[in-house]
């Protein structure tokens, strides 16, 4: 499984960004995909995730109401639309995927990771 993130950048507070995660090598065993954020000195924390089989989604409290997950019809690209960005949204955003029977929310559970895309809000 390969994951490639894009869409990060530098924006002013109140602005919007749409992050993309292009996935390849997906199999039926890789049914959970999500976005994690990491800032220097801290662990990666889940921002939003979706379970492809159940359709269940999760949004961290910090982004709920400002972030929306979506996928293309082929389910090869996961998007994270983030609006009303705040300085505390700043960090490296990683796409992660794995095969679970539940909606996994911890970074350690995910075996597949992209290289990340930087988001800076000032």
Q: How many runs of DSSP E, i.e. beta strands?
A: 11
The average pLDDT value, as a whole number, equals: 92
- Give the SSE order as H and E letters: EEEEEEEEEEE
Basic shape: globular
Measured by DSSP, the beta-strand proportion falls in over 45%
Helix content: under 10%
Secondary structure category: mainly beta
Sketch the major β-sheet: 7 strands, mixed
Question: Distance N terminus to C terminus?
Answer: 34 Å
Describe this structure in words.
With 122 residues, this protein is mainly beta. Helix content is 0%, strand content 48%. It has no helices and 11 strands. The protein has strands spanning 2-6, 9-11, 17-24, 32-38, 45-51, 57-59, 67-71, 77-82, 91-98, 112-113, 117-121. Strands 2, 4, 5, 6, 9, 10 and 11 form a 7-stranded mixed beta sheet that branches. It has a 4-stranded antiparallel beta sheet with strand order 1-3-8-7, with no helix packed on it. A hairpin with a 5-residue loop joins strand 7 (67-71) and strand 8 (77-82). It is globular, with a radius of gyration of 13 Å. The model has no long low-confidence stretch (mean pLDDT 92).
